[in-house]
TrEMBL record:
InterPro entries: GspF/PilC, T2SS_GspF_dom, T2SS_GspF_sf. It comes from Holdemanella biformis. It is a multi-pass membrane protein. The chain crosses the membrane at residues 107-131, 151-174, 201-226, 305-328. One of its GO terms (cellular component) is plasma membrane. Keywords: Cell membrane, Membrane, Transmembrane, Transmembrane helix. The lineage of its organism: Bacteria, Bacillati, Bacillota, Erysipelotrichia, Erysipelotrichales. This is Type II secretion system F family protein. Signal peptide: none annotated. Its main location: membrane. Belongs to the GSP F family. It is found in: Cell membrane. Residues 10-130, 201-323 form the Type II secretion system protein GspF domain.
Length: 332
């Protein structure tokens, strides 16, 4: 499946081509000269369409696109605004790409810091310790303190090794997993993922409201793009309330999709007829809240990790210095 960045390139270029009066097929030919994966995907879609498939069916057959994009293309073709849909999709994938980069930055920094500390501790244990042991052996001195220091240092070494291996396992599971539901069970990432999904949900909803698309059908399409189980369950209940005759704003508020302040704002917008504008405003606020959450996480994590890892390295250094102090006292 294409990455968010590749889907951004794909949708933005098709939006440009279609808005200039070109057909989808012409737009695909333009994409052949782009990024390798995008080019391969465009060629694959061309080949599938030559077999008699429609553009939408070709998107499904290629297995390169998420269900949300496919359904949005169906909507665009049904209302005759495919270029507008591709433009909105490009904006959506650009935002998703930006959010993913911010989350990666939040995770990468502590991992690099731990890796550096691991290398330092490993160097002390496997390079410095043997030198001191050799000196003590040549001087026919007791190695009991050295052995104790080595044991203490190994404890620190294996703590760092465990953290690194655990982090790498989580990373590979994240990359290989088709859905990220398991992340919702992790303490910090549960809240982070929910905030990210709320940002996505509010933004997509604002697009549908502003386009005048049938809201019940819009909710069905939005459900295809939501991964967080708690939020998905709330949206399903919203849909049921709408089927019973409630307005979208009322259903969202009653199911606690938005907090009290945002809910009041949405209800007021529903009465004034400016729901799309308010939803876009809320989407930006959720995005800002997510950025603040990541920034706050890093601001707390950085000094905590530096302090903790410095103590760990200091502990290893002290364990090395104790035998050295013993040597100096003996020589004295």
């Amino acid at each position: 499946m294409l990455s968010n960045n590749e889907k951004y390139i794909f949708t933005s270029e098709l939006a440009l081509a279609i808005s200039n009066g070109l057909q989808v097929e012409d737009g695909l030919k333009m994409l052949v000269g782009f990024d390798a994966d995008v080019s391969i995907c465009a060629k694959k879609l061309e080949d599938i369409m030559k077999q008699g498939y429609s553009f939408t069916d070709a998107l499904k057959e290629s297995k390169e696109f998420d269900e949300y994009m496919i359904q949005m293309v169906v909507v665009g073709q049904s209302i005759g605004n495919l270029d507008v849909v591709f433009k909105e999709l490009s904006t959506y994938y650009a935002r998703q790409k930006e959010l993913n980069y911010q989350i990666q930055d939040a995770i990468t920094y502590p991992f690099v810091l731990i890796l550096m500390m691991f290398v330092i501790v490993a160097t002390l244990i496997f390079k410095v310790f043997p030198i001191f042991e050799n000196i003590l052996s040549q001087m026919s001195m007791s190695l009991s303190l050295m052995y104790s220091a080595r044991i203490l240092s190994y404890i620190g070494f294996f703590i760092l090794l465990f953290i690194l291996v655990f982090g790498l396992i989580l990373y590979f599971i994240y990359k290989k997993s088709p859905n990220k539901v398991w992340m919702t069970k992790l303490p910090f990432f549960s809240k982070l993922n929910y905030q990210k999904e709320m940002t996505k949900f509010t933004y997509i909803l604002s697009l549908f409201v502003s386009s005048g698309y049938a809201l019940i059908d819009a909710v069905d399409i939005i459900l295809l793009s939501i991964e967080h189980p708690v939020l998905k369950d709330k949206i399903l209940h919203v849909k049921n309330r709408m089927l019973e005759g409630e307005s979208l704003a009322s259903a969202l508020v009653k199911e606690n999709v938005y907090d009290q302040g945002y809910g009041a704002l949405l209800m007021a917008a529903d009465q004034s007829g400016h729901q799309d504008e308010v939803l876009k405003t809320l989407s930006n606020r959720y995005k800002e809240d997510l950025e603040r959450m990541l920034s706050s996480f890093l601001n707390r994590l950085e000094p905590s990790m530096i302090a903790g890892l410095s103590l760990l390295v200091g502990f290893v250094l002290i364990s090395i210095m104790l035998p050295l102090m013993n040597v100096l006292q003996t020589l004295g």
